[in-house]
Amino acid sequence: MEEMLRKKVMLSGIKPSGDLTLGSYLGAVRHWAARAEEFDCYYFMADMHAITVRQDPAVLRRRTLEQLAQYIACGLNPEKNTLFIQSHVHQHAELGWVLNCYSMFGELSRMTQFKDKSAKNVDNINGGLFTYPSLMAADILLYQPDYVPVGEDQKQHVELTRNIVQRFNGIYGDVFKMPEPYIPKVGARIMSLTNPASKMSKSEDQDTGRVTLMDDPTLIMKQFKRAITDSDTQRCVRYDPEEKPGVANLMTIYAAVTGKSYQEIEAEFDGQGYGMFKPAVGEAVVEVLRPIRDEAQRILKDKAYLESVYRNGAEKASYAAERTLRKVYKKIGFISQ
Ligand code: TYM
Hints:
Layout (H helix, E strand, L loop, with lengths): L1 H4 L2 E7 L7 H11 L6 E7 L1 H4 L6 H17 L7 E5 L5 H10 L4 H5 L2 H9 L6 H15 L5 E3 L5 H18 L7 E3 L34 H9 L19 H14 L3 H7 L5 H27 L2 H30 L5
Parallel strand pairs: 1-2, 2-3, 4-5
Helix pairs in contact: 4-13, 5-8, 5-14, 8-9, 10-13, 11-13
Bound molecules: ligand 1.
């Protein structure tokens, strides 16, 4: 009966390792806000994950609070969603350790993100970077979620979490609920505006072609005007990710922010060339981000409010997390206190 009455649970997180980008927004956050009535939702700032790459402490603190303000500005009402900071809920580190012992060296070695990040940080290939997916599995499984809404690049980590669930439940019975990744149909992989072969990333600087939620309209327009398209002499706006990846990326962004289909976009810019198309995408993005930026800036000024949100969030999250952790400790043979 309790199971029937229980709302389905949704959970996700973002590392405060850089300013939130249009990619994080279109691939993740924007899909979260609409679910608050239907689901029991947990969203957090993954500060423990952020330190797998060296961070300036003052900048990390600032970004963590900014991210919380941006979550709220994107429509995550703290009354209806549990918003918290990962390091405030100690159960993440504890279950993370346990799950390390149920994650295999081979499967961790195959993670694309580990390979990419090790290539980019050759002087700091630390243990945390390697065991990152076990901590992410703990983040997820503590809350027994039904769905984990993420962009395409995190799918592999959710799949690994599913393998851990299978392994763990295979030994100890039904301890963890099997989570499903929830990947949006449009916008799951937004690419850099200047290099459509690599994803738009928050930890790189502006010259890598990213747009952040806090960029002012002039900068956003500049970024879109200099976006890479292709050398097609006809300068035709057509959706072809293989042949025209830069144009396809811009079309994806435009489709995601306007709700138009690729056919509608092709028809809209038929015969007009990239000169009209690129600023039109920029303007559509500016209009979507403007209210978010204004609201985030307003909220950020109210530190006492932000503090009350993350304190309440941590309290609620700890309550749910502790239930799962107790169950796990008992199953694996730890003596309860
Ligand atoms: P992170 O911080 O890299 O990214 C946060 C979310 O944004 C999505 N995303 C994108 N989607 C589309 N296009 C892009 N260019 C783009 N860039 C980012 C990501 O897929 C992600 O959904 N390990 C996670 C954070 C995490 C987490 C978790 C997520 C820690 N624990 C538990 C879910 C559940 C990460 O590094 O995401």
